[in-house]
Specification:
The complex is a heterotrimer of chains A (96), B (365) and C (343). Chain A is of the alpha+beta class and 96 residues long. Chain A has one domain: SH3 type barrels (Roll), CATH 2.30.30.140. Helix content of chain A is 15%, strand content 33%. Chain A has a five-stranded antiparallel β-sheet, with no helix packed on it. In chain A, a hairpin with a 2-residue loop joins β4 and β5. The longest helix of chain A has 8 residues. Chain A is globular, with a radius of gyration of 14 Å. The relative contact order of chain A is 0.18. In chain B, α1 runs parallel beside α11 and α7 packs across α12. Chain B has a six-stranded mixed β-sheet with strand order 4-3-5-6-11-10, with helices on both faces. Chain B has a five-stranded parallel β-sheet with strand order 2-1-7-8-9. The radius of gyration of chain B is 21 Å and the shape is globular. Chain B contains 15 helices and eleven strands. In chain B, β3, α5 and β4 form a beta-alpha-beta unit. Chain C is built from eight helices and 14 strands. Chain C is of the alpha+beta class and 343 residues long. In chain C, the strands form three sheets. A seven-stranded mixed β-sheet of chain C has the order 9-11-7-12-10-13-14. Chain C has a four-stranded mixed β-sheet with strand order 1-6-4-5, covered by helices on one side. Chain C has a two-stranded antiparallel ribbon with strand order 2-3. Classes of the chains: A alpha+beta (96), B alpha/beta (365), C alpha+beta (343). β3 of chain A pairs antiparallel with β8 of chain C, so a sheet runs across the interface.
């Protein structure tokens, strides 16, 4: 029905638009996409958010996340033992 | 199998065996198309006891989008100076005279976007064209569309138009259950829709029809756990709402998202492909945002929903038949040449069966 | 693509394709010097190839990709890798390629220069020469900037026998590394769908890796195929259909990077169906599999190599995946162009 994936907020920018308000660059374990934070005004840098079609729909509660650590790990893909190697992460020099 | 999965499967096996022995085999409906696909993709289906029947519900927004809507989108695509902005999901859905993909082949401008915000951007970058955003989806998707309408209004972008066919899950559940005896013992409720509407939204369903409702995420263990919670309730004769996806779903849901949707949209009667009209199950733009309504700018109308001959998709998405019971399944109707809506979308029930289910596989190709 | 090109930038014009002075200038200044070799240098109507010992193998492939340059590669790199790989997976030693370029009016000369540099560098890497070529210019709006066709000719090795009909129950499947990188990297730069990613296309000429695999496995390497469009699942479904055996794959053994796994999830794509341009699937007799895997892992293009599955006699012949959670499901080939989804 609706795909949504968890990602971590790297930085928050004020779009200057009263409607859109804040947008965030969200990291999905190596790919980064901008997401609107209009639906989650409480979100801060370093929070994990669930993003659907360019909009953050919820902040993953840290306390809840700790209690649900296994589920969070699964949601983040940390339960899988990947046999692949990782590309070298890009520096941020091209962003800022 | 990991030990936590093993434990859940073992208890499910025991409970379902007891219930079957007592002459009460369990059937559970997963409402959400993403659950349908995830249950196959993770292999969950292969781990479940054979006496536990999983029935797919009407929760694939592409599948329930009426054929009239697809035809209208194709007609709009043929209009001069129009760009259709759409999620990738809609591109291959066939209408009466073709799909957006075939329209693109004939020269129409079809832009695949990831977010409704991209449609706003597209409108801004193409001021001489009318950008028509195909707004489909359930409660998870609609808030973003509503916000994009507000954004366009705020920035004075007047060439963005919306062709809305957004749908609501709870009225559809009422329609399924209100039609008489429904051979379903409980509901696996959609995790991401529930982020917006909250787990409390299922209380009337659980209370009124006596069906347990459990909200679940999409990972193997979480889905199996939710099924176990439903079966436990069935065995104990209970009908409560539970939430095993509390990582992200709350009881009231996302109130900001609800308010944004309420500002822009209002409920309306809506046609569900192969089911028919369900009262107050759709959303339309409120009058003050009427100028964004694509239909008000063109002399076009939405045609009727037509169900192709021999297709039993209507029964499939209401849990009355499995894809394998359809004479067309896998022969006359395949993902390459779909006849019915459930074969069209990759998360449609028939497409998921065709793609993942070994028992119904006719041949590799 | 970009409608607002900087005016002062020198671009391809229709005159470059007219066959006159401008065409000669384009070829002699920007293309031929970079590709120079003994077969090309006479610049006759056809290249004359040396006499060879053995059966010849020939293939052709056309390349269109938008945009022309993407993370980890470009159309020039692809045009050489794709055709070379089609030769080497057949067990052929590549001899020579032809290069046909259809250039759209308005393509910046600087872009053309980069693509020709890329073609030259990749051909050197693959140990193959461009023996003949052709350029045409088409009007603005009628092409995708640059479209390339390459044909390749090679000599079949006589010490191997690559044929799907030799596959037996119990044979194992090997892949030389992470799946899905190429398709996802290209998707990250598609119009309206752009996102920033650490992923790079895996496009690479596979000749030297395949020499290594064949040296280690000899005739026990029974079949090779590069899982390009259609991804790994496309190749596996072909194998099940062609051999009459079922294929059983362990999801946990299929190499994939965390970035690719999450990016595919983000876009609603199945990583098994996403294109690769530097991967090979090898079918190996089970007694030779460990030796071939070790050789693979020691090669620069095979460090993440893994044995991912086996052939079984289960009927009907299908491809089945054992999931990370221990469940089972079928794998089917993708239907067509994979589009990002929200559902």
């Amino acid at each position: 029905m609706c795909l949504a994936v968890p990602g971590k907020i790297l930085e928050i920018v004020d779009s200057g638009e009263p409607v859109i308000g804040r947008t965030a660059m969200v990291d999905f374990q190596g790919s980064r996409l901008e997401a609107s934070l209009a639906m989650v005004p409480e979100a801060e840098v370093d929070d994990w958010v669930l993003v659907h079609a360019g909009f953050a729909m919820s902040v993953l509660d840290e306390k809840e996340a700790k209690e649900n650590w296994d589920m969070l790990k699964a949601a983040l893909g940390d339960d899988v033992e990947l046999v692949g190697n990782e590309p070298t992460p890009k520096g941020d020099e091209d962003d800022q | 199998m990991t030990s936590d999965v093993q434990a859940v499967v073992a208890e499910l096996n025991d409970l379902c065996a007891d219930l079957e022995a007592a002459g009460k085999p369990v059937a559970i409906m997963e409402i959400c198309g993403t659950h349908t696909v995830s249950l196959f993709r993770t292999g969950a289906k292969s781990l479940l006891p054979s006496s536990l029947r999983l029935v797919s519900g009407p929760g694939c927004p592409v599948c329930v989008t009426s054929q009239g809507y697809i035809d209208l989108a194709c007609d709009l695509a043929a209009e001069p100076d129009v760009i259709i902005a759409t999620y990738g999901d809609m591109v291959r859905v066939p209408g009466a005279r073709g799909s957006l993909e075939t329209m693109r082949g004939e020269g129409a401008e079809i832009a695949v976007v990831y977010s409704a915000r991209d449609a706003v951007k597209l409108a801004e970058e193409n001021p001489t064209k009318r950008v028509i955003f195909l707004s489909v989806g359930f409660e998870t998707t609609t808030p973003g569309t509503a916000l994009s309408v507000l954004e366009a209004e705020n920035r004075g972008i007047d060439n963005l138009l919306i062709l809305a066919q957004n749908k609501l899950v709870i009225p559809a559940m009422h329609a399924l259950l209100g039609g008489g005896e429904m051979p379903i013992n409980g509901f696996l409720c959609p995790g991401h829709v529930s982020i917006v509407i909250g787990s409390d939204a299922y209380k009337p369903i659980a209370d009124q029809y006596g069906k347990p409702c459990v909200v679940a995420g999409f990972e193997l263990h979480n889905m199996l756990l939710a099924l176990l919670h439903i079966v436990r309730q069935v065995a104990a004769g209970e009908n409560r709402v539970e939430n095993v996806y509390s990582l992200t779903v709350t009881e009231p849901g996302n109130l900001h998202a609800q308010a944004i949707v309420d500002k822009v949209f209002q409920p309306c009667d809506a046609v569900w492909r192969a089911i028919g009209m369900i009262p107050a199950s759709g959303l339309e733009l409120r009058e003050e945002y009427g100028r964004f309504d694509a239909l008000s700018h063109f002399d076009l109308e939405m045609g009727p929903d037509v169900c192709p001959a021999g297709c039993i998709c209507g029964e499939v998405i209401q849990g009355q038949a499995t894809p394998a019971e359809c004479k067309l399944f896998g022969t006359g109707c395949t993902p390459i040449k779909p006849v019915g809506p459930c074969m069209v979308s990759s998360e449609g029930t028939c497409a998921a069966w065709f793609r993942y289910n070994r028992n119904t596989a006719r041949t590799v190709e | 693509m970009s409608e607002r090109k900087r005016k002062e930038e020198p671009c391809i014009t229709m005159a470059h394709g007219g066959g006159g002075e401008m065409t000669q200038k384009l070829l002699k200044e920007r293309i031929i010097p970079k590709l120079a070799n003994d077969l090309l240098n006479p610049l006759n109507d056809s290249a004359v190839l040396p006499q060879v010992d053995g059966r010849l193998c020939m293939t052709t492939d056309s390349f269109v990709v938008q945009p022309l340059e993407f993370p980890g590669g470009d159309i020039g790199h692809l045009a050489v890798c794709g055709t070379v790989n089609d030769l080497v997976v057949m067990g052929a030693k590549p001899l020579a390629l032809s290069l046909g370029m259809i250039i759209e009016e308005g393509l910046p000369l600087a872009t053309l220069d980069r693509m020709v540099d890329s073609i030259a560098a990749t051909a050197r890497e693959a140990g193959v020469v461009i023996a003949t070529g052709d350029t045409k210019v088409i009007e603005r709006g009628k092409g995708d900037g640059l479209m390339i066709n390459t044909a390749g000719i090679g000599v079949m090795r006589d010490d191997v026998e690559l044929d799907a009909s030799r596959i037996e129950e119990g044979d194992l499947l090997l892949i030389n590394g992470n799946v899905a990188d190429h398709g996802l990297a290209v998707m990250s730069v598609r119009e309206h769908l752009e996102f920033d990613t650490d992923l790079l296309s895996d496009a690479a000429p596979l000749g030297s890796l395949i020499d290594t695999l064949l040296a280690a496995g000899g005739r026990e390497v029974k079949f090779l195929r590069d899982p390009t469009r259609g991804g790994l699942s496309g190749v596996l479904c072909d194998l099940a259909a062609d051999t009459g055996f079922s294929v059983e794959i362990e999801e946990a053994n299929v190499p994939i990077s965390r970035v690719a796994l999450h990016t595919a999830e983000l876009l609603g794509l199945d990583p098994l169906s996403v294109a690769n341009e530097g991967k090979v699937v090898a079918v190996i007799g089970k007694d030779a599999a460990d030796a071939v895997l070790s050789a693979c892992k020691a090669h620069p293009l095979g460090g993440m190599g893994a044995l991912i599955g086996r052939f079984t006699t289960a009927t009907p012949p299908l491809v089945e995946l054992i999931t990370r959670g221990g469940g089972r499901r079928m794998v089917t080939r993708p239907y067509g162009e994979e589009l990002p989804r929200i559902c």
